[in-house]
Amino acid sequence: METRPVRGGAGRPGHRLRFGPAAEGIERLAASLVGEAFAPHRHDTYAIGVTLAGVQTFRYRGELRRCLPGEWHVLHPDELHDGAAGTDAGFGYRIFYVDPYLIQEALGGRPLPFVADPVVRPEGMSPALLAWLRHLDEPLEELARLEVALLVAAALERHADVPVRRRRDPLAVEALARVRELIAADPATRHPVAEFERVSGLDRWTIARQFRAAFGTSPTRYRTMRQLDVARHAMRGGLPLREAALRAGFADQSHLTRMFKRAYGLTPGEWTTALT
User: Fold this and answer.
1) Do strands 56-60 and 46-54 pair parallel, antiparallel, or not at all (unpaired)?
2) Taking the mean position of all CA atoms in its chain, how far away is CA 206?
3) Could you give the 3-state DSSP secondary structure of residue 125?
């Protein structure tokens, strides 16, 4: 499939992005970069990707990392990182973005694993995961979605810094899930904390403490990312940026642009141009 570059200074080619069919809680992306870097940003998902060509470099938890062809990188939700080519030839990679809630379901309620060393050798990951990225255009049916979630969860636990044994209280997770669902159902609306307390039966301090532990990010950050989902969908449908911002509940176009770059490392215009 032909791709279109984002043009940078002096007409240099930049980013190329191609999304495969998604499933609930899972996105797949093929990307390449020459010359220009992704600005520092953070997702609210696990990002598990494999470098296919060139040298990928990224700064993560205070260290510069290098990911060579065949090597994987594993980034935890809400961890700041960037991305740049290690050579003038640029690099290409494919990646899963997986909702932490889906991972916790796959783990049967155990706490979310944290992988301290983000670069994983090829032999440390299942070949089946790579197959789902290589066949990017194949749909993820329900059983395939479950398979990918289980493979990712197993890889995270295998490489986690500290083995996780304790299970979370399923009733508390279920209560927090109601808060999450309320936000996701209407991210353009800023719900009062009292409404979170009402739907969950938990007090606001428990919600604030436990939401991140259960889902990898804060309620505020989770809402912002769901707003950006609305905006991305509107942008891909051809809606002007100002209207996309208002539909998603941002104050204005500038507000959307700031939040978008913090989440994806690109401006909305760069992201839209890079889509294939």
Assistant:
1) unpaired
2) 25
3) coil
Tokens of 127: 């070949």
Structure tokens at 267: 């401006």
- The confidence band for 21, taking pLDDT boundaries of 50, 70 and 90, is very high
157: Cβ contacts below 8 Å, ≥ 6 apart: 107, 110, 113, 163, 164
Res. 40 pLDDT band, cuts 50 70 90 = very high
Bridge partner residues of 85 (DSSP): 56
End-to-end CA, the chain: 8
Q: Record the pTM.
A: 0.84
For the stretch 80-128, pLDDT in tens is: 999 999 999 999 999 999 999 999 889 987 889 999 999 999 999 999 9
pLDDT at 9: 34
Q: For residue 106, how far is the Cα from the chain centroid?
A: 17
Q: How confident is the model at residue 264 (pLDDT cuts 50, 70, 90)?
A: very high
Q: How far apart are CA 97 and CA 217, in angstroms?
A: 14
Q: What element of type H or E holds 95?
A: strand 91-98
- Which structure tokens are listed for 111? 């706490």
Token pair of 262, please? 């913090």
As a 3-state breakdown, the chain gives helix, strand, coil percent values, each rounded to 5, of: 45, 20, 35
* Model pLDDT, residue 8: 36
CA dist 161 → 117, 118, 156, 164 (Å): 8, 11, 9, 9
- At which residue do the structure tokens 């294939």 appear? 276
Distances (CA, A) of 224 to 77, 206, 229: 14, 21, 9
Q: Residue 165 CA to chain centroid, in angstroms?
A: 25
Write out the H or E segment, with its range, that includes residue 30: strand 26-33
